[in-house]
């Protein structure tokens, strides 16, 4: 029977959802029995099924149910029968304490996995074989045709890039941006797809021009000695501490060929005192988060921006999304207000540097907030893309199709999965991806909110009583064994989690662990890892929860297929309105549909091994009598549900049941925060709460969705200001253009026109 319904139509206010439980389907006697059991069940669920107020979509929905019994009350060998909705039944036998048919709490009710699911309207085709792989679009250019020296970089840098960093030829964006940034003093807007090398595209010209102060192009010395105290020449701003650290690492590698140039970071997360001490010692290139920089500009006298020639705004749209507009205005204003020093305090003339302040804005995607940032920060900028460099003249900016497209070599697919089957399908997908050793090395799973990341990490790891990392280590709660993904053929897979609610040192240590691990790894994360993160070995991205906006999607999938490498990305969608989202994505890239049935087939082709538990010293095989992928999926789902219930009872396993409920609530709230234009595809009124609960291992939707979660989901535009610690300061003075450092209105107007031309190309993608 098709799902009759019931999809909740609710307002996410503060009041808890109304609950009205009615068991339908099955035999009359069973229904009565279930009602009674549910009423008696005081401790298994947060609100017993009959407990008044809250509504569940399980109501009106045909429920298949059965009773479960306490483990201690029943013989371990007793078998349970499942009806698969097609008249066939399946027995799932016990394999000890934690097998499929291990018992659950009295009154527990399970809904069958494969019945009453909505049917996808997507037509699945067998992927065409022998398709010529697409030519990488973000790869370095051919070495014969291009080299760094020809772009104006000194032989010293070119040689260093080639021999030490194994970069023989530039990428397209580097080819187009390095010459103008070395020769000219114009502002620039660099726009190129993810993984195309934008970081070096702006760093190399800066390093080259600072080197030019002390060395001529032929390498001979100019007689000027540049050292850390010679002045601050460039500031790079990036939205997160992780990104700042990553940029700092790239820069450090480049500066090994010019060790007299010194860089540092001011990103928060450590005492301001030690940051001040580093600034006092002297620095030539500073990498900072906006909040922290604004703070130092206000409070650190030793920070002299008179010699600053470059201001780089990396990940421009993210800077704006995270609410840094005020800080950015303040920073731009303060730097412009400061008179440009032609020589430094030692009297060294800075003629080799730009003779005006140059601002460079970088972004892989283009949206309205980038236009706004362009207005704030750029003056008569050139627009540099991977395919061309265009000066600010009368020439119209052509539609830039690359603005939202993913790297061409990235293989994208989407799998349409009914809500109930999401969890087992995710596990199946990961199992099949990691089935063979070496097939996939690193995968990233994107999830909408931190609570859900925490829950899925705890669910898929080995029991915390079997820690895989050193108890005293920073990563003891964020790195573990991927117990449910491993297989005899690939037994050592590491599971990691990352989100913004973790302490900074833990975030850094976890990312380092992901980056450097020699084992295959799965990182479960929120969008905190969606921007800029560069881990070349990532070969699979799974969007388990779709991104909040198309731009976020482009950035997420851009964590793979970097610098010409291959990569795969799979997006989870649910049958119904979510399927329409593909049409929006198709305008920028090709996606191949994949059925969840085939994912389950591939993932559960062999019996599932369960990890060691507190009850079992050895891994157990999850047995289902009918050795089919679907029956294994059923057995796995049942096992996970029982684990949750058991955790509530013995308090072990980090109280997984509580974590599941919290994750479910936060997930539902996060679902409501898709950008307005895309809510037609992510319509919360179409979400089936009972089925969704199942994908959290819950047997019914918990109440309290209207209440505040312990950690609020941060939605785009409402980001907390990480690393800021910054009061708004006196920006309001400048907003009306009164301050000496106010953004030049005329320049802003010209830039607005320019950005509008570029933006008109974005319009066709429905992105605003
Ligand atoms: N010329 C080059 N040759 C080979 N590899 C390169 C070259 N330039 C950059 N790379 C590598 O490409 C990868 C991506 O670079 P980078 O992080 O700068 O990309 P990006 O365009 O900033 O991506 P995103 O938009 O996702 O932040 C890095 O691993 C970098 O080392």
UniProtKB/TrEMBL annotation:
Keywords: ATP-binding, Helicase, Hydrolase, Nucleotide-binding, Nucleus, Ribosome biogenesis, RNA-binding, rRNA processing
Cellular component, GO annotation: nucleolus
UniProt region (Disordered), positions on chain: 26-140, 610-629, 698-749
All copies of domain Helicase ATP-binding, residue ranges: 179-384
Start and end residues of each DEAD-box RNA helicase Q domain: 146-175
Motif mapping: Q motif: 146-175
An example Gene Ontology molecular-function term: RNA binding
GO biological process: rRNA processing
Domain of life of the organism encoding this protein: Eukaryota
EC supergroup of this enzyme: hydrolase
Subcellular localization(s) per the UniProt record: Nucleus, Nucleolus
Residue ranges occupied by any Helicase C-terminal domain in the UniProt entry: 409-612
Residue ranges with Basic and acidic residues bias: 61-76, 727-737
Family: Belongs to the DEAD box helicase family.
Protein role: RNA helicase.
Name of the protein described by the UniProt record: ATP-dependent RNA helicase
Source organism of this protein record: Daldinia eschscholtzii
Gene name linked to the record: DBP7
């Amino acid at each position: 029977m098709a799902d009759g319904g019931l999809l909740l139509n609710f307002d996410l206010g503060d009041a808890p959802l109304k609950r009205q439980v009615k068991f339908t389907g099955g035999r009359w006697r069973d229904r009565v029995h279930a009602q009674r059991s549910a009423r008696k069940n005081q401790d298994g669920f947060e609100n017993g099924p009959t407990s008044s107020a809250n509504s569940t979509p399980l109501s009106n929905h045909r429920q298949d149910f059965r009773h479960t019994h306490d483990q201690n009350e029943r013989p371990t060998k007793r078998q349970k029968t499942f009806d698969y909705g097609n008249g066939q039944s399946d027995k799932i036998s016990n394999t000890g304490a934690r097998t499929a048919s291990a018992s659950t709490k009295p009154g527990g009710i399970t809904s069958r996995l494969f019945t009453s699911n909505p049917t996808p309207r997507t037509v699945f085709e067998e992927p065409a074989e022998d398709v010529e792989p697409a030519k990488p679009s973000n790869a370095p250019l051919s070495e014969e045709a291009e080299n760094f020296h020809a772009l104006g970089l000194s032989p010293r840098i070119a040689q260093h890039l080639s021999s030490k960093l194994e970069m023989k030829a530039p990428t397209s964006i580097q080819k187009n941006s390095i010459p103008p940034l070395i020769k000219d003093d114009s502002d620039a807007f660099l726009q190129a797809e993810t993984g195309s090398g934008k970081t070096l595209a702006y760093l190399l010209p800066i390093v080259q021009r600072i080197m030019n102060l002390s060395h001529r192009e032929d390498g001979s010395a100019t007689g000027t000695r540049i050292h850390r105290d010679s002045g601050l020449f460039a500031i790079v701003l990036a939205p997160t501490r992780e990104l700042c650290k990553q940029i700092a690492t790239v820069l450090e590698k480049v500066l090994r060929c010019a060790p007299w140039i010194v860089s540092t970071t001011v990103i928060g997360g450590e005492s301001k005192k030690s940051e001040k001490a580093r600034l006092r010692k002297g620095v030539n290139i500073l990498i900072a988060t906006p909040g922290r920089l604004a703070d130092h500009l206000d409070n650190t006298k030793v920070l002299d921006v008179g010699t600053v020639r470059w201001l780089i705004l990396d990940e421009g749209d993210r800077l704006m999304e995270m609410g840094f507009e005020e800080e950015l205005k303040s920073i731009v204003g303060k730097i412009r207000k400061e008179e440009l020093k032609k020589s430094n305090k030692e009297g060294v003339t800075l003629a080799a540097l730009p003779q005006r302040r140059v601002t460079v804005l970088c972004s892989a995607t283009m949206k309205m907030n980038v236009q706004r940032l362009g207005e704030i920060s750029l003056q008569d900028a050139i627009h540099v893309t991977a395919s061309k460099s265009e000066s600010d003249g009368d020439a119209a900016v052509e539609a830039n199709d690359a603005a939202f497209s993913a790297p061409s070599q990235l293989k994208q697919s989407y799998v349409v999965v009914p809500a109930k089957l999401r969890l087992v399908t995710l596990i199946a997908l990961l199992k099949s991806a990691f089935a063979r050793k070496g097939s996939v090395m690193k995968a990233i799973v994107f999830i909408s909110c931190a609570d859900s990341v925490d829950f899925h990490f705890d669910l898929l790891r080995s029991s915390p009583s079997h820690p895989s990392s050193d108890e005293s280590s920073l990563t003891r709660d964020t790195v573990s064994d991927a117990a449910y993904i491993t297989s005899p053929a690939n037994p050592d897979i590491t599971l990691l989690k990352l989100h913004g609610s973790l302490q900074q040192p833990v975030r850094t240590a976890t990312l380092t662990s992901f980056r450097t691990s020699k084992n295959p790894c799965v990182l479960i994360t929120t969008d905190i890892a969606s921007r800029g993160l560069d881990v070349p070995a990532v070969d699979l991205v799974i969007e388990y929860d779709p991104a909040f906006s198309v731009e976020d999607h482009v950035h997420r999938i851009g964590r793979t297929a970097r610098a010409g490498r291959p990569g795969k990305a799979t997006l989870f969608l649910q049958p119904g309105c979510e399927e329409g989202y593909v049409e929006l994505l198709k305008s920028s890239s090709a996606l191949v549909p994949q059925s969840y049935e085939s994912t389950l087939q591939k993932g559960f082709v062999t019996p599932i091994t369960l990890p060691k538990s507190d009850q079992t010293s050895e891994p157990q095989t999850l047995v289902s009598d009918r050795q089919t992928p679907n029956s294994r999926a059923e057995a796995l789902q049942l096992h996970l549900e029982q684990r949750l219930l058991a955790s509530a009872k013995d308090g072990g396993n980090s109280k997984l049941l509580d974590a599941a409920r919290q994750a479910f609530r936060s997930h539902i709230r996060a679902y409501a925060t898709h950008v307005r234009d895309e809510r037609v595809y992510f319509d919360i009124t179409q979400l089936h709460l009972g089925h969704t609960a199942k994908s959290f291992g819950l047997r019914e939707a918990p109440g309290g969705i209207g209440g505040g979660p312990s950690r609020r989901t941060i939605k785009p535009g409402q980001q907390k200001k990480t690393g800021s610690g910054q009061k708004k300061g006196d920006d309001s003075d400048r907003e009306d253009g009164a301050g000496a450092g106010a953004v030049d209105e005329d320049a802003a107007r010209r830039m607005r026109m320019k950005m509008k031309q570029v933006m008109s190309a974005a319009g066709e993608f429905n992105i605003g």
